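Troubleshooting: if your tokenizer reports a length mismatch, compare your output against this known-good record of 70 residues.
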Amino acid sequence: MDKITFQAFEKLQKCEHLLRVARDQMGLGRISREEFRKRKADILSRFSLTPEEQRAYDLHLRITKSKRQR
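Known-good structure output:
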């Protein structure tokens, strides 16, 4: 896996973790639905993939999918 693909995976993992934490906090009543929406928008904007990272991630998915089908 090259450096750009690795960066994309790291960003996606961090994003998913923070979204899961925010969902859990909302589920436990620690934050309101409105606060959750604000945090979600902030998380998604902070960890959005660059076009280069998105291409590398898509290529990795295509390669792994074709390997599984063989």
